[in-house]
Amino acid sequence: MSAKPTPGPWRVIHFRGSIADDFAVYTDGLENDHLVVGEFTGHPRTRLANARLVAAAPDLLEAAEQALDGLRAGGMAGEIMTLEAMDALADAVKKARGQP
Predict the structure, then answer these.
(1) Percentage helix, strand, coil, to 5, in the chain?
(2) pLDDT tens, 46-97?
(3) What confidence tens digit (pLDDT) does each residue in 15-34 have?
(4) Is 85 in contact with 61 (CB distance < 8 Å)?
(5) Count of CB atoms situated within 10 Å of the CB of 22
(6) Are 50 and 42 in contact (CB under 8 A)?
(7) Which conformational region is residue 68 in: left (phi greater than 0), alpha (psi within -120 to 50 degrees), or beta?
(8) Which residues of 72-87 are buried (b: 16+ CB within 10 A; e: fewer)?
């Protein structure tokens, strides 16, 4: 039996840490309880970007699986990658980058 990740969606929240502003990634996917997936307190220039990337992980995984399914169906050329799979992948990348 393989381990399953915490269900998404995951979100970034901002909170005031003991020394500086910090970020956490949480989900409300488990019986309405908020579960912190990770806290990011590192360098000011990277902690928000890292939190966004981690928060996008469930979306990126789902989009990658859809893309793989399309590539497998279309052979090596990947002619059957669906528009839905491409849109899901683009949306997940935007989320990881913090773009609307």
Answers:
(1) 45, 25, 30
(2) 888 889 999 999 888 888 888 877 777 765 555 556 777 788 888 888 988 8
(3) 876 666 788 888 876 555 66
(4) no
(5) 19
(6) yes
(7) alpha
(8) eeeeeeeeebeeebee
